[in-house]
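note to self — DONT lose this again. spent like an hour looking for the file last time. sequence + predicted structure for the chain T wanted, 580 res
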Amino acid sequence: MMGLLTLLLASLASVELGFCTSDDSDQLGGRYRGLPTSAISSSKWHALNATLGGKLHAAVPLAAPCFSSLNGDEFRGDTSECAIVETGYRNPFFRSPKLNAYTWPQWESCVAKEESCMLDPTSTNNSAAWSGKDCAQGSVSEFYVDVQSAEDVQIVFAFVQQTGVLVSIKNSGHDFGGRGAMKGSLSIWTRNLETISHDPAFVPEGGNAETLALTIGAGVNWYGVYKYAEANNLTAVGGYHPTVGAAGGWLMGGGHSILSPVYGLGVDRVLQFKVVTPDGKYRVANKFRNQDLFWALRGGGGGTFGVVLECTIKAEPQMKLQVASLSFTQTTDNARGFLKLVIDNSVKWGTEGWGGHISAHDLVSVTPLLSLDEAKTSMQDVVDYTLAQNGTAIIEEVPSWLTFFEKYVSFTNSVGINAIGGSWLVPNTMFDNETTKEQLLDAIMPMTAFGNPRITTATPYLFNYTTGSTSAAPAWRNSLWHAVFQYMYPWNATQDAVRAGYQTITDNIQLLRDIAPESGAYGNEADIYEPDHERAFWGGNYPKLLELKQKFDPVGLLDCWYCVGWRGADNSRFQCYVSE
């Protein structure tokens, strides 16, 4: 890697730095210039690397070894390295530990400029993806810092202040909105902060109450947390995919789990953050210290208020779970009947603690509140329907969350495929009577023509929430469903085809907005062109969040798409997003 860094630094010419352009003046009132990495002299990069003790690295796109041209220049590919990429392209555990990889690879590209370096995910050895084509850098940062400490982040922020270079934050790459990717930016990469520990009597700094807790480094993914918790007879309430970062954007955006109906969102369970804010200060944020920052980090979104190094979350003792897993072959005749049954049973299931994922032909849910016999009774209607469609139905008890996770969760679903998503929180009132339930069914059914909606029953339905204690969307607190819709598109899709895909998402989610206009969306899985995103993601919390953004990031060093203080689509930072 140092060879690549040396080559890249040697290619840079020293330039004079200018002041900000008009599109870099922003609502935060700063003079941060937002220059691409190519505008910073090689001598400054060398000095940064020396100060960091060699933690500055260079990156090329993940699939570069398969190409013979890189960024318009002749490039010697590597057949053996290409074969490794081909094999791992759809594997989340191959992608997650790499700076240059995302779960959805379009964020490695610059879609609006049609600059990419992709393989064909349906046949990764298809040479049509690279033969005679250029591997473009796209949105992969040419330079990144492999963060090992708070001091590393402080050094980077000082460098950004001094040079005006663009900066972004990346963790696991499980990022549906591309907020960790920014063309021409210096990336702060936290993936290797992988410490984890537990404490039966954790006390936040400045506090006095003891809590069973897990302390997690920013780079630890949920699968790692679950395995650690299992080994220590604990349960962690977290994400549904193994490579989601436990202390990153999932948590700061709200963080839903299929255990959330009983145990709350991620933001309800965090006890403490350790974070470096853009002003260069290392801070501990909890209920007793930096309370305003603590509130902002619990729902205000990742990549906005600072670089989180670790968090401490509440843990639960290891618990048994009842599992329902149903599946049948979907036809034009049986989808509506199944979804109607789901809607009719949703309130009952919510009161019984069920949380899970449901489509028009399957259901996987768990509850910690029922016995096995009670679970069988609860699910009898949908079991009967499933078996009548010649499907399969399992109702069983498992001894722990990890047992469930490893048996029932798909690790490779949607990985390495270009995908577009959108979501809407469906309020409890939609389940009040037959009229509103029929409206909901009519809104969901059109989505089945393009790709099944994913009904995520992961709202904090039974959780005893203190109003105003977090900054996440208030709509979470009175919703029963989080409805998600995804649209996949091929590796070689044109920009017009991609734009049409985004429009499909917006149009289908609009059906839910129309019947529940006062609700909101989960920013981590929302339509990236969500109308009135400030209200949808944060409701009445947005003005206070913007005020805190100005406090902790007064010149706007951090910015990402549809984040608090966002500069807008016309800003050059967001040149790779396709226009609406």
